[in-house]
Design brief:
The complex is a heterodimer of chains A (about 675) and B (about 130). Chain A contains twelve helices and 34 strands. Chain A is of the alpha+beta class and about 675 residues long. The N terminus and C terminus of chain A are likely disordered. With about 130 residues, chain B is an alpha+beta fold. In chain B, about 30% of the residues lie in helices and about 25% in strands. In chain B, strands 2-3-1-4 form a four-stranded antiparallel β-sheet, covered by helices on one side. Classes of the chains: A alpha+beta (about 675), B alpha+beta (about 130). Strand 11 of chain A pairs antiparallel with strand 4 of chain B, so a sheet runs across the interface.
Chain lengths: ~675, ~130
């Protein structure tokens, strides 16, 4: 049946395009914000062979003033151009024709226009193969297979843009790591949250969404560019002479669809909880989002509270577009959530699960798949899009951002050590007895910070507040917007006894701990205090540490921005040996202090993942919604599913059997309400 | 400068810090921040959705009976986070809630990891060349 629908739709669409209608001077009817639509007062009809050469019942209605055949198919079906009485609603007339048993298909007489190339420079440079694939090679690729690929292995965005570029009336929620709403390519596309509500209570915000993970209104991403990349693929302002065109980024002035930024991953590290995911979905529904993109997921058990939220969203007419996952596994066998809501009977009507394809329409080697649970594919490798604009003030990995003014062991070994790094990790920088502490930075290598204890019995010392001062900001951070500290750490310390603390010092006074209550590694990562959490050994001067975990953390330094800002890492130990393990220590690396960039020219990057494929599909759905404002999420899903390009690389791997095609989707003919016009 | 920060700054204040931690006045190692626990669910939390028509009084009585506290809203009536001691079994709390006629759904507060780039890397900032 799907194949039949696609065939009939294609027939009328192809006829409308190939025959060059309308004539010169025709006036286009427009749908709000969607650009040109169709010739007013005309309908194109495909009459079944059995109905050819006779008047259809519907043609006897007063709304029809003239019906003329203009072509015939090889199988004898007849194409007719129908003139409607003045004032007749074209869409209602189309539905009336579809109800006539003698009609195989009916459609408005869509207008087609000169195919303008957007002036976004990354599009002009050929980086946007997912939108328009000419067989180009993507430089600095993050996925090398099938690079270059094959021309036409794309979502056919240029042909779709002839009909729709994205209406500001359409709202798409980006449920992710946050969105850099100050990015010049996104700022004009952000949703206005000034009248937002949550749980029936007024929740206005100047920040275009909400940060559920950190419990604050501002969804700006201090830690991760993922959500900003997703947002750009969807709705970066198109044809604005800047960066990239989002697939639903509009025609120029005013951008296109509106992006609602809902942050569910906390800046300080860790994952998104189901509670925050549920709250974000409910917020999106309550505030009128038409589509939600969820480039996230986990294996495991279904959460019935989450299911209820998804059911409510679907019932409210939303479409949820979900990344299938990057584990190269079969979602039919290993369910992924929320992706598998695309196959759950109570939610499937409004959920799409998206696999990633490469530049030759093959399934990407990392992409999950599922003959019944994954719906369709979309380009998901080497996807160029926006990232958060961050300027590095100081980096342990970049000598140009590292002025070498660290003060190792400053309190007790200052005369012998300050300003001199370990020549090698085993060098002694002890405060007293068996405690040592310092930083390690051989020439040409990144800086690492070590806190280390010998493994002698009874060696722990009481209350040792040794410190490393990580200072030397190469630029004055005073007034810096969104100043942030990032670091990655591994540790082996005694739970509830030893810890690492981080605080902020301005040269004369300690301003505050960065975020009270979250500074001690053991405290912050209490779930890893269990020895069963040992995951990964690392070696240090001949000794191997068990590691409770490795995690990257982020702290907001904005409130402490000053010209003399220093960051201190403290290693705190107790008096006695409190466990059988007397070794202890930690390591920190990838230490960066960043702030918002003043220049966003470099705030673009190539990413890969089903996370990148999903927003292309969500963007196509937004185009269809822009063109057909009455469509529900179920209608949008039907349009997406029934307009795919069948590709061999997805055969048997996704339920729709193909890769999304924006051009076909916006031309897909279907009355709103989920009723399919096919016979 | 806070007492805690001062205590950190000067080793001689170690006892002061220790006392403060024991007394709960400063953040200390024994305090859990379960959100960052790399488990598959948050400790000390569960999600509950009561059936429509359940009165606020009955909801409150159930929470008190089970030793639970009402946490943040999930954005719909009668659906919210419940909190309890971090060392209490989440599974047992969920089972207790599910056994009640008034409860529509009860689940652990599971955690979805940050989307990891396939193959471990994404691209660095780049534009047209």
């Amino acid at each position: 049946m799907d194949a039949l629908r696609r065939t009939l739709t294609a027939l009328v669409t192809v006829a409308a395009l190939a025959l060059g209608w309308p004539g010169p001077g025709a006036q286009a009817q427009r749908t709000p914000g969607a650009g040109p639509a169709w010739v007013p007062g005309e309908v194109l009809v495909l009459v079944a062979p059995s109905g050819s050469n006779r008047t259809l019942a519907v043609e006897s209605l007063p709304m029809v003033t003239q019906s003329r055949p203009f072509a015939r198919s090889r199988r004898g079906a007849e194409y007719r151009r129908v003139q409607l009485a003045p004032g007749t609603d074209v869409q209602q007339a189309v539905e009336a024709f579809r109800d006539d048993p003698g009609v195989s298909a009916a459609a408005p007489n869509y207008l087609n226009h000169f195919r303008a190339t957007p002036n976004d420079p990354h599009y002009g440079a050929g980086l946007m193969w997912g939108l328009y694939n000419t067989g180009q090679t993507i430089p600095d690729a993050v996925y090398e297979t099938n690079n270059p690929g094959s021309a036409g292995s794309d979502v056919a965005a240029p042909a779709a843009w002839d009909l729709a570029t994205g209406s500001p009336e359409v709202v798409v929620a980006v449920i992710d790591t946050g969105v850099d709403y100050r990015h010049p390519d996104l700022a004009g596309a952000m949703w206005d949250a000034s009248a937002a509500t949550f749980g029936g209570t007024s929740a206005p915000s100047p920040y275009h969404g909400y940060d559920f993970a950190d419990g604050e209104p501002d969804p700006y991403p201090l830690a991760d560019a993922h959500g900003t990349h997703v947002a750009g693929t969807l709705g970066a302002c198109r044809n604005d002479g800047t960066g990239v065109p989002g697939i639903a980024g509009g025609a120029g002035a005013g951008c296109g669809v509106r992006l609602m930024a809902l942050k569910v991953f906390p800046d300080r590290g860790g994952g998104a909880t189901d509670a925050d995911l549920i709250a974000a979905i409910n917020y999106a529904r309550e505030n009128g989002a038409h589509i939600a993109n969820l480039s996230l997921g986990r294996p495991g058990d279904e959460n019935t509270v989450l299911t209820a939220a998804v059911e409510d969203a679907v019932a409210a007419g939303m479409l949820l577009v979900v990344a299938a996952g990057n584990a190269a596994t079969d979602n039919d066998a290993v369910p992924q959530w929320p992706a598998n809501y695309a196959a759950l009977p109570s939610t499937a009507a409004g959920v799409l699960s998206v696999a990633a394809t490469d530049q030759a329409d093959a399934l990407a080697n990392f992409s999950n798949y599922g003959a019944t649970t994954v719906t369709l594919g979309a380009p998901g490798v080497n996807i160029q899009s926006t990232i958060a604009g961050r300027e590095v003030l100081l980096s342990s990995n970049d000598a140009s951002k590292d002025d070498g003014t660290y003060n190792g062991c400053e309190t007790d070994i200052a005369t012998g050590f300050a300003g001199t790094p370990f020549a090698q990790p085993g060098d002694d920088c002890r405060q007293s007895g068996l405690h040592r502490w310092g930083w390690y930075k051989p020439p040409g290598q990144p800086l690492e910070i070590w806190g280390d204890l010998f493994a002698a019995a009874g060696s722990y010392e009481n209350g040792i507040y040794s410190e490393i001062v990580f200072s030397g900001l190469s630029a004055d951070p005073s007034g810096a917007a969104y100043l942030a500290l990032h670091y990655t750490t591994a540790w082996d310390t005694e739970c509830a006894y030893d810890g690492v603390w981080v605080d902020v010092y301005n040269g004369s006074a300690y301003l505050a701990t960065v975020q009270a209550g979250e500074l001690n590694i053991n405290e912050t990562l209490s779930g890893l205090c269990d020895q069963s959490g040992l995951t990964y050994p690392f070696s240090h001067t001949g000794r191997t540490y068990p590691v409770f975990g490795i995690v990257t953390l982020t702290r907001d330094l904005t409130p402490y921005a000053s010209a003399d800002l220093n960051v201190h890492f403290w290693f705190w130990t107790d008096t006695t040996v409190n466990s059988s393990s007397v070794t202890g220590g930690f390591r920190m690396w990838d230490v960066d202090i960043t702030r918002e960039a003043s220049d966003f020219t470099a705030a673009y990057a190539l990413f890969k993942g089903t996370s990148m494929a999903a927003p292309l599909v969500a963007g196509i759905a937004a185009l269809v919604k822009s063109r057909n404002p009455a469509y529900t999420g179920a209608d949008l899903r039907e349009a997406l599913v029934n307009s795919v390009d069948p590709v061999g690389g997805l055969d048997g791997l996704v339920s729709a059997g193909g890769r999304a095609n924006a051009s076909s989707a916006v031309r897909y003919i279907q009355p709103p309400g989920g009723v399919i016009a096919s016979r | 400068m806070s007492t805690c920060a001062r205590a950190q700054r000067w080793p001689t204040c170690a006892l002061l810090l220790a006392a403060a931690i024991i007394g709960g006045g400063c953040p200390g190692p024994a305090t859990a921040d379960a959100r960052l626990a790399l488990d598959d669910h948050v400790r000390g939390e569960a999600l509950v959705q009561f059936k429509p028509g359940t009165s606020p009084e009955r909801v409150q009585a159930i929470l008190e009976e089970l030793g639970l506290a009402r946490g943040r809203s999930l954005g719909t009536p009668l659906a919210f986070v419940v909190t309890f001691a971090a060392d209490r079994s989440v599974a047992e709390v969920v089972v207790q809630l599910r056994a009640l006629l008034e409860v529509e759904h009860a689940e652990p507060n599971r955690i979805t990891p940050l989307p990891a780039p396939p193959g471990g890397r994404q691209g660095r900032p780049a534009g047209p060349r």
